Amino acid sequence: MTESKYLLEMKAISKSFPGVKALDDVSFRVKPGSVHALMGENGAGKSTLMKILFGIYKEDAGSIFIEGKETTFPNPKAALEQGVSMVHQELNQVLQRDVMDNILLGRYPQKGIFIDQKAMYDFTKNIFDDLGIDINPKSKLANLSVSARQMVEIGKAVSYEAKILVLDEPTSSLTQQEVNHLFRIINLLRDRGCGIVYISHKMEEILEISDEVTVMRDGKWIATEEAKDLTTDKIIRLMVGRDLTNRFPPKTNKPGDVIMQVKNLTGKYQPSVQEVSFELRKGEILGVAGLVGARRTELLETIFGIATHSQGEILLHGKAVDNKDSATSIKNGFALLTEERRATGIFGGLDIKFNSIIANIDGYSKYGVLDDKKAREDTKWVIESMNVKTPSQKTQIKALSGGNQQKVIIGRWLLTDPEVLLLDEPTRGVDVGAKYEIYQLIIDLANKGKGIIFVSSEMPELLGTCDRILVMSNGRVAGIEDTKNLDQEKIMTLAAKYL
Amino acid sequence: MNMDKLKSKQLKEGLLDYALYIILGIMILTVIIIDPKFVSIKNFTNILSQASTRAILGMGIAGLIVLQGTDLSAGRILGLSGIVAASLLQDINYAARMYSDLPVLPLILPLLVSIAIGVTFSVINGFGVAKLKLHAFIVTLGTQLIAYGAALIYIDRPPLGAQPIAGLDERYTGFVRGYFKIGVGENTFQLPYLILYAMLIAVVMWFVWNKTKLGKNMFAIGGNPDAAAVSGVNLFKNIMYVYIIAGVLYGIAGYLEVARIGSATSITGQNYELDAIAACVVGGVSFSGGVGTIPGVLIGAVLLQFINYGLNFIGVNPYLQIIIKGVIIIVAVSIDVRKYIEKK
Q1: A488-499: buried (b, 16+ CB within 10 Å) or exposed (e) per residue?
Q2: Which of A144, A147, A395, B276 is the most buried (most CB within 10 A)?
């Protein structure tokens, strides 16, 4: 009896990167005809494990079996050939080419030495028809919406007719309807006997679609259980490793007078925000919710002046301010914590001190020379008041954990003494424990009278920390409500209002 | 009102997209207005002949630019392969032959040697980029110097010392400079073989770029290397192929260019790569990678040659011409970059 009852078995996989043990003796098994959710916090090792399965990384130790047969995956090509396909977390697409070029990338059909364009079209059309995807195979990818691109990527992964399909955060930019569509596709594949590995942070989705759930933490396997035996709380407990009785600190801030008004703000280069109006109070935390593509980041960028607006105005204390670029906005008392910490937040190779003082650099200049003593004092303040865990001020910021990096950057903005803080996904890539600290920081700042706009894709954290929530849909304000009148379902309904 | 605004905005954008061609068109028109004699079949065939070798070089470099790379060594590789070809094809009766005992060789043999030289260098370039992950700028800067040094050593040898390799075999020069006579009597004009060779190569390259797996993979790798990798495209192999094709074209261009000029020296090919890169850029091959067309490269090469020739024709100061060329390149790239900047 050599037949294995598992489609995929990954046994005792270990993988180290310089300075980090990313995977430590992890085992993972998927049954045929089932959906297996892989869960864990950011940095738990889920994506690393899947990248090993797909041949992007090479494991240091351990072995992989497909249908009971040991195999190795030197590169993605080998994985695809052995029946493993994957929808990647970052969309890996060639935007300047058309849909069918992307779908068939790496396996173009040929007629003699030439590419068979007609076969490409037919193949793509068939896949899309089969899955009920309504996209023209000849559209240039750059002209499609993010969610359409994601559907293309899903169609592509399915088209390999793989036995094992890995979906790494496939729903990050899909609407509820499209998520339902994806689930129909997944059910179809499950009925065909495929094994599906589903990575997501959305608990409800996981509990709805999966048969089994494996939880990882800090690069280690923690548990594998039947989905029907699990609840959201139980999964979180497994992910975090302790009971999180209070995921959010007590709300102590009290909103006061109006500090900022945004009237009829419309971005110059569409798609962007359209006719957005709202008010922000002193000491208020205003959440901004919406799907990917709702233009939440664009809203913050437009307020902060790094994106241009064609009409509308921003009033601070009732007076119009001209936030024409970031330097002016900072002078006017605005601060923006950007979404992509690694790309636009940290200066990775530079030290904590540099990263702390850079937004306020004018404040240290004496006759054109920087005052190092003041810079050191302020950095010390950032480290102490933000509770940054770092060996010294001279440590490169990239050596810190995501949560500590984020705390440094929040501290950086506080040094500019802002009145309005624009926070774009401040807890992205931050551990659950450190998230709590960041919520606490945000509430403390509100207590000090700052006005805070808090953009997040995680609805629970908005519901847990904000006074009011503004829901955006397709660039417009779909509604602004007191948090106590909202729940996730209501937010989702509003988020789909203008689609 | 709003529609009008939108339309005028679209018009403005459209004008900007084609600004370069409009400027170049105006320049050519100006040349014609100053001296109407510029419009003649002889001038035009001259321009096309001169543009031919640059276009062949350009079609090679264009592939590397599509791959987000570049090639600083192309001109010197052209020079070296041309020099070697010339030394093998000197007239048997020419006094200062480099190889005095060399028998008369068939034309194809030196061509293959030229191609082999081109491929050797581009394999080094490709390996540096695809395997050692060097930036194309760096590795081709290195091979540029190596090719130049090799050419100097090759040419500077006793008893003759460094002197131009001249006295080329007439079969060889005829193969390149020869022409078809078209028409009869008064209306004949000459169509140089060289132009036909360039056209033939362009057709082949168009097929490679648009109709083959390699072409598709090249655009995919240039557009998004990660996407290509996870889709099972062998990056190393495909990048190497694109470089090797470029090397073949450099070799052919070297072989043709020397016959076109009639002799070879150590400065043959100097700065040709810059002209070829300029042709690519003017023709819309984007330095951001993943974008470009073969007709674009041809148009770029011909337009630049038109300007060159035209300015000479009306007697513009040659130093000023260099400045004008510089301005054209900057304008071309500004317009190209404009299309890809994300406006906020």
Answers
A1: eeebbebbbeeb
A2: B276
Q: What is the pLDDT of residue A143?
A: 85
Distance from CA of B177 to the nearest CA of A (A): 33
Q: What are phi and psi of A39, to 5 degrees?
A: -125, 160
Nearest chain B CA: its distance from A106 CA (Å): 5
* Domain-embedded: residue A416: yes
Strands A34-39 and A195-199, how do they pair?
parallel
Number of H helices, E strands in chain B: 14, 2
Within-domain flag for A214: yes
The ipTM (two decimal places) reads 0.73
* Beta-carbon separation of B224 and A95 below 8 A: yes
**pLDDT of A43:** 67
The answer on A311 and A228 residing in a single domain is no
Tell me the C-alpha distance between A189 and A183, whole Å: 10
- Tell whether A264 and A120 lie within a shared domain: no
Instruction: Take residue B90 and report the two structure tokens written for it.
Output: 């000197």
Q: Identify all chain A residues contacting B290, using CB atoms and an 8 Å cutoff.
A: 94, 96-97
**Mean pLDDT lowest among A317-331, A399-413, B5-19:** B5-19
Written as one letter, the residue type at A154 is I
Tens-level pLDDT at each residue, chain B (344 residues): 455 666 676 777 777 777 777 888 888 888 899 989 988 888 999 999 999 999 999 999 999 999 999 999 999 999 999 999 999 999 988 888 888 888 999 999 999 999 999 999 999 999 999 999 999 999 999 999 999 999 999 998 776 677 889 999 999 999 999 988 887 777 778 889 999 999 999 999 999 999 999 999 999 999 988 888 888 889 999 999 999 999 999 999 999 999 999 999 999 999 999 999 999 998 889 888 899 999 999 999 998 998 889 999 989 998 998 898 888 888 887 877 777 676 77
Q: Decide if B230 and A92 are in contact by the 8 Å CB cutoff.
A: yes
Q: Does residue A345 sit in the same domain as residue A446?
A: yes
Q: Does A96 touch chain B (CB under 8 A)?
A: yes
Buried b (16+ CB within 10 A) or exposed e, B238-250: bbbbbbbbbbbbb
* Residue A343 structural domain: 258-495
A236 and A266 fall within a common domain: no
d(CA B275, CA B289): 19
Phi, psi of A334 (to 5 degrees): -110, 155
Asked, for residue B5, whether it belongs to a domain, the answer is no
> Which residue range forms the structural domain that includes residue B194?
40-340
Q: Per the domain annotation, does A251 fall within a domain?
A: no
Question: How many domains is chain A built from?
Answer: 2
Instruction: State which H helix or E strand residue A353 sits in.
Output: helix A352-357
Interhelix angle B272-282/B41-66, rounded to 10 degrees, is 90
Same domain membership, residue A390 and residue A465: yes
CATH assignment at residue A278:
3.40.50.300
- Residue B4 is assigned to a structural domain of this protein: no
Residues A263 and A236 in one domain: no
Q: Does residue B3 belong to any structural domain of this protein?
A: no
* CB A36, CB A30: distance < 8 Å: yes
Reported as a pLDDT band with limits 50, 70 and 90, residue A128 is: very high
In a domain, A245, yes or no: no
* pTM of the predicted structure, to 2 decimals: 0.79
- Give long-range contacts, CB 8 A cutoff, 24+ apart: A317-320: A317/A259, A318/A258, A318/A261
Q: What is the pLDDT of residue A1?
A: 39
Q: What is the DSSP string of A389-403?
A: --S-TTSBGGGS-HH
CB contact under 8 A, B220 and A93: no
If asked whether residues A331 and A234 sit together in one domain, one would say: no
- Asked if A431 and A401 touch (Cβ cutoff 8 Å), the reply is yes
Has residue A491 got a pLDDT over 70? yes
Q: Establish if B226 touches chain A: CB-CB under 8 angstroms.
A: yes
